[in-house]
């Protein structure tokens, strides 16, 4: 009886060792195959992890069967425990479900510059429970997937073109056509600005202290900040060359002298 039980233990250990090794091999082969077919990296990681965990659970059940443990009751207990844990971890399950939806519908992908849940940054990782972003000032933000899917998502790099919105003001005494020509010269200095669509240079408003232009060039998303800051500086220099003034808010104060009557 003792020898038979020892054989069962050895068999169960062998099943665990070989089974875990096979699970790892299957996971590695599947990852290679999915990468070879250029499957999205997020989907690769998620599917590989899910498969690996599933195979390990199957190996553990097989090992228990080798020990002649009644796995039916074990599975029932495991299911009850899973229900209890699920109720205790509703937030995590919500994040898990949101992660699955993100992988299926792909509102964002790795490398996108996005704004989610009030955080803007480059997507570095889309995990089972959280999404990780690197902000432009090199901060690392971790956002729960449920917050990502339950809020508005702004994906700045989804389309291949992005408009840069700038405002340039001139004084009321300056020539509008001359100012428009100066802005056009400033825009022409940047190869990053696309010719199609053509940049807009429009008189936006006659404000309290200035006549304001809307300047709207288009560029690729990766060139946005180069165009934004570069064009702003170039317009200022072109205005200086042409003697065009950029007004600032000012107030006239009139003093009255009252004599005692």
Radius of gyration: 32 Å
Instruction: Assess the beta-strand content as a share of residues.
Output: 15-25%
- How many alpha or pi helices? 7
Which runs of at least 5 residues are low in confidence (pLDDT < 50)? none
Write out the strand line-up for the largest beta sheet, numbering strands in chain order: 4-3-2-1-5
Condensed summary:
The chain is 51% helix and 18% strand.
Task: Note down, in words, how this protein is organized.
By secondary structure, the protein is an alpha+beta fold. It has three domains: about 1-90, Helix Hairpins (Orthogonal Bundle), CATH 1.10.287.1260; about 110-155, SH3 type barrels (Roll), CATH 2.30.30.60; about 160-240, Alpha-Beta Plaits (2-Layer Sandwich). It contains seven helices and ten strands. The chain has a five-stranded antiparallel sheet with strand order 4-3-2-1-5. It has a three-stranded antiparallel sheet with strand order 7-9-8, covered by helices on one side. A hairpin with a 3-residue loop joins strand 2 (about 120-125) and strand 3 (about 130-135). The mean pLDDT is about 85.
């Amino acid at each position: 009886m003792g020898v038979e039980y020892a054989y069962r233990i050895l068999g169960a250990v062998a099943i665990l060792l070989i089974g875990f090794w096979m699970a790892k091999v299957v996971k590695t082969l599947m990852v290679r195959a999915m990468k070879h077919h250029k499957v999205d990296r997020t989907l690769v990681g998620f599917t590989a992890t899910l498969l690996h965990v599933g195979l390990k659970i199957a190996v553990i059940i097989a090992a228990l069967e080798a020990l002649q443990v009644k796995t039916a009751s074990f599975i029932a207990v495991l299911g009850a425990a899973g229900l209890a844990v699920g109720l205790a971890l509703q937030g995590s399950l919500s994040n898990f479900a949101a992660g699955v939806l993100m992988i299926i519908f792909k509102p964002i992908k790795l490398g996108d510059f996005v704004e989610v849940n009030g955080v803007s940054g480059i997507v570095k990782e889309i995990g089972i429970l959280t999404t990780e972003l690197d902000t432009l000032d090199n901060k690392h933000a971790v956002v729960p997937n449920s917050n990502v899917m339950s809020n508005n998502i702004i994906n700045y790099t989804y389309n291949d073109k992005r408009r840069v919105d700038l405002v340039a003001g001139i004084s009321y005494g300056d020539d509008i056509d001359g100012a428009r020509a100066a802005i056009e010269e400033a825009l022409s200095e940047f190869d990053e600005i696309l010719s199609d669509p053509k940049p807009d240079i429009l008189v936006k408003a006659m404000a309290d202290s200035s006549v304001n232009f809307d300047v709207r060039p288009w560029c690729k998303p990766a060139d946005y900040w180069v165009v934004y800051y570069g064009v702003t500086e170039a317009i200022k220099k072109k205005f200086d060359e042409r003697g065009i003034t950029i007004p600032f808010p000012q107030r006239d104060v009139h003093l009255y002298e009252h004599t005692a009557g």
